[in-house]
Q: What sequence folds into this?
């Protein structure tokens, strides 16, 4: 990607020049504030049902006698200046908060929203941002200082989408969904965990959560609490598993959080009594056979084989001949740990 002045898709506005920023603060040479509050980042808008998208934000030029502002929209993740279309504009002196204008998707994205998806053919990945609409809010104060903010959302008219989808979950980092008929309805529910510590079970027809869902993990235990900062619940970043654990035909959901604790929930979201459990005690892989020599690390600390140079010279000490005693001890089987933890 060629270097260019201003904003770009890979590096944003680039690294801040801290020295210039501190100098501007010390002299009061601070640009106005431009901030877009809505729509949400990467929100999905269907032009056939939502032809106009409301844009709200905040403008403040308290260090100047006045300002002018301009809201623009352009197709793609990195529109050039010529690609932006003005949506609204204005001027004032007092801070402004609320509606800034409406993006006419029929005008901005009518053709691109109906285009069929296709794979990119160039290294610029031209189809990746095919349905992206970029908003740009620029505020210029009386001294000519400029504040800028951007936000992107998607505009797509897709007739294959089922009602109620796409569905905004909230946090990111969800694991891959499991498709399973939890309640015997004949429909495959969409089951997954998220980084807020919730497990969802979504009806594919209505798009709503199944009765009893979402369920939550325990609150995150922190080393030090900070006022005003909620630690949330234990995150689930890996895929959950769904299966008949007891052989009764009733499906259960099993999920493990970043703390290493494993949870089990029933088809109605009820957590199994006695869970979660930390399964690192007594559940270990069979140890790798290793010689009981001076430099050998113990199984609890990891499997690493050392050379026994205290009796014979070994390859490690430069003899070029393998240590026969070492080979003999490597063949000697270690006692296996047969302990198990039952999920029943």
A:
């Amino acid at each position: 990607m060629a270097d260019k002045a201003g904003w770009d898709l890979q590096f944003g506005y680039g690294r801040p020049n801290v020295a210039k920023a501190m100098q501007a603060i010390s002299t009061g040479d601070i640009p106005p504030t431009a901030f877009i509050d809505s729509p949400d980042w990467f929100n999905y808008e269907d032009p056939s049902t939502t032809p106009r998208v409301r844009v709200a934000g905040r403008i403040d030029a308290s260090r100047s006698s006045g300002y002018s502002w301009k809201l623009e929209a352009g197709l793609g993740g990195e529109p050039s200046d010529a690609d932006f279309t003005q949506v609204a504009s204005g001027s004032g002196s007092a801070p402004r908060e609320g509606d800034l204008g409406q993006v006419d998707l029929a005008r901005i994205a009518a053709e691109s929203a109906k285009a069929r998806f296709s794979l990119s053919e160039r290294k610029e990945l031209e189809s990746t941002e095919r349905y992206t609409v970029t908003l740009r809010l620029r505020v210029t104060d009386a001294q000519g200082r400029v504040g800028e903010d951007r936000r992107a959302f998607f505009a797509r008219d897709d007739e294959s989408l089922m009602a109620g989808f796409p569905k905004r979950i909230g946090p990111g980092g969800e694991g891959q969904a499991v498709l399973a008929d939890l309640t015997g309805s004949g429909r495959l529910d969409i089951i997954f965990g998220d980084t807020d510590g919730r497990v969802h079970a979504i009806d594919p027809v209505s798009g709503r959560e199944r009765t009893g869902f979402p369920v939550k993990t325990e609150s995150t235990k922190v080393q030090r609490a900070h006022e005003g900062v909620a630690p949330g619940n234990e995150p689930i970043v890996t895929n959950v598993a769904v299966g008949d654990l007891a052989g009764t035909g009733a499906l259960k959901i099993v999920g493990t959080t970043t703390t290493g604790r494993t949870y089990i929930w029933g088809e109605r979201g009820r957590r199994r009594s006695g869970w979660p459990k930390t399964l690192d005690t007594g559940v270990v892989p069979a140890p790798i056979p290793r010689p009981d020599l001076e430099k050998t690390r113990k199984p609890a600390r990891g499997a690493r084989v050392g050379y026994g140079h205290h009796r014979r010279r070994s390859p490690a000490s430069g003899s070029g001949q393998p240590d026969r005693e070492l080979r003999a001890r490597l063949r000697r089987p270690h006692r296996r740990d047969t302990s198990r933890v039952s999920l029943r």
The longest helix spans residues 18-27. The radius of gyration is 30 Å.
